[in-house]
């Protein structure tokens, strides 16, 4: 899932990032600062300093969740895989579910299926009617309520830390926002759930799945990937994103230009 904060009349470029297969394996790995959500919500001076260093030198940091929140996250991804899977086959449903699902074929042959939603003013917006009506999507719809709230709370916690680290946001032509927290609370928060599948044929291992690119918004919240056998609706034994097993991973460009 990706969750992008877009304030009214105000956008900013983010770090460059890519999703690669074996074609990016030459880049070095780095350790990313990780903070529990509970500490981000009530940060100490040390946490604020570590967050500042992470966003200044790397461009991102990781937030760990409590047991209940982590369970809700896993149930959401499990439910999303079930929602888009074709019954009894190792594939994805045909059609676009009356416009609820967008399919794109990437340069390496990977197929990306996306469902868009939004949380505005911290109020989650409804999913498309066709998705709500599909019985296989019931777990996803139910589990994602709490998960979307967790993501929203993460964004609001980070915005509060930004208020303590930086000056107030600039005014724009639609009104004055005296803090990042106020801006985020009034923002349109775009959410996207993605499912990537690789067909057994026509897959080019020399191409990155997603080329290096930047996104726009005040900031973006992303979750780690989870691997599934769609025919069994069972998580791959390696579980979450494991570049060593799958031959790829998530890459970004640091402020000094190095790709890691």
Features:
260 residues, 6-stranded antiparallel β-sheet, 7 helices, 25% strand, globular, signal
Written overview of the protein:
By secondary structure, this protein is of the alpha+beta class. The chain has one domain. The strands form four sheets. Strands 1, 5, 6, 7, 8 and 10 form a six-stranded antiparallel β-sheet that branches. The longest helix has 28 residues. The chain starts with a strand and ends in an 8-residue tail after the last strand. About 9% of the residues have low confidence.
Q: How many strands appear in the DSSP assignment?
A: 13
Question: Helix share of residues?
Answer: 25-40%
Round the mean pLDDT to the nearest integer and report it.
79
Quote the beta fraction.
Answer: 15-25%
Segments where pLDDT lies below 50 for 5+ residues? Answer: 5-16, 237-247
User: Can you write the helix and strand succession as a string?
Assistant: EEEHHEHEEEHHHEEEEEHE
Structural class: alpha+beta
Counting structural domains, the number is 1
Tell me, briefly, the overall form: globular
Distance between the termini: 21 Å
Q: What is the CA-based Rg, rounded?
A: 19 Å
* Number of DSSP helical runs: 7
Largest sheet: 6 strands, antiparallel
What's the oligomerization state?
single chain
Keywords: Signal
Brief account:
With 260 residues, this protein is an alpha+beta fold. The protein has one domain.
């Amino acid at each position: 899932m990706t969750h992008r904060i877009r304030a009214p009349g105000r956008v900013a470029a983010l770090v460059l990032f890519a999703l690669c297969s074996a074609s990016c394996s030459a880049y070095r790995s780095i350790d990313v600062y990780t903070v529990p959500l509970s500490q981000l919500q009530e940060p100490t001076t040390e946490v604020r300093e570590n967050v500042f260093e992470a966003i200044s030198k790397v461009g991102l940091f990781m937030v760990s969740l409590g047991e209940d929140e982590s369970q809700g996250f896993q149930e959401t991804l499990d439910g999303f895989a079930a929602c888009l899977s074709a019954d009894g086959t190792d594939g994805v449903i045909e059609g676009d579910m009356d416009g609820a699902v967008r399919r794109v074929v990437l340069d390496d042959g990977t197929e990306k299926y996306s469902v868009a939603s939004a949380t505005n003013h911290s109020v989650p917006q409804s999913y498309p009617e066709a998705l709500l009506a599909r019985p296989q999507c019931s777990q996803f719809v139910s589990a994602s309520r709490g998960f979307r709230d967790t993501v929203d709370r993460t964004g609001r916690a980070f915005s509060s830390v930004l208020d303590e680290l930086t000056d107030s946001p600039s005014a724009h032509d639609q009104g004055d926002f005296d803090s990042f927290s106020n801006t985020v609370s009034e923002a349109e928060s775009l959410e996207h759930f993605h499912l990537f599948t690789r067909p057994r044929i026509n897959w080019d291992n020399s191409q990155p799945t997603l080329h290096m690119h930047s996104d726009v918004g005040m900031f973006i919240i992303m979750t780690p990937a989870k691997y599934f056998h769609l025919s069994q609706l069972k998580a791959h034994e390696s579980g979450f994103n494991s570049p060593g097993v799958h031959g790829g991973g998530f890459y970004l460009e640091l402020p000094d230009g190095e790709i890691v």
